[in-house]
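ok so i was messing around last nite and threw this chain in just to see what happens. nothing serious, just curious
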Amino acid sequence: MSERGTSTEEEVGLVIILDDDALVRDSIDSLLRSVGLKTLCFGSAQDVLDADLPDVTSCLIVDVRMPQIGGFEFKTRLTDRGDDIPIIFVTGYGDIPMSVKAMKAGAIDFLPKPYRDQDLLDAVTTALSRDRERRSARLDLQAGQKLYDRLTPREKEVMAGVCRGLLNKQVAGELGITEITVKLHRSSLMKKLGAKTFAELIRINDFLVRQKA
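result:
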């Protein structure tokens, strides 16, 4: 990914259109631009995989059946490289098994052609909202991780014990230090993390653990 986009791009969102049919690409492009959305168009999956895409809120509209690399294989390749941009699959040959496969692949929606313009716009709105949430969670994790990295090794040990539900004296026993020392470390680490209460400390710890899972 390239550098982060501007705040305007981040707010509007970017829709990446992948379809080997130029007429379909142009039609979707015109529809999305008519409602103020930013777009990028590609005629092959490999072109998208090779592109330096902007690091902004975005989603993909992907045709299922394309030469060389089809829509589902494209999604697999994105997943394998750790890219989880929300995807909307479209196809002119849709059936129930294909729809099920699309949803299992993690698609936001699966739209058989011809679809209503509003259905596509609704799917794009959902996908961009999902990506905003994903990016926000990533930024929160990065901020939380930076604060956690400021803790000393001993403070991290105390935090781990406290968040397991151990009393200060139990943490002291495990670490071979005094209870007073545990209290000092606990007070220090909570200040560094910006946690004013024990409940906030638990929430911070749970968030870091959950996001790393």
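not much to say yet. The domain at 150-212 is CATH 1.10.10.10 (Arc Repressor Mutant, subunit A).
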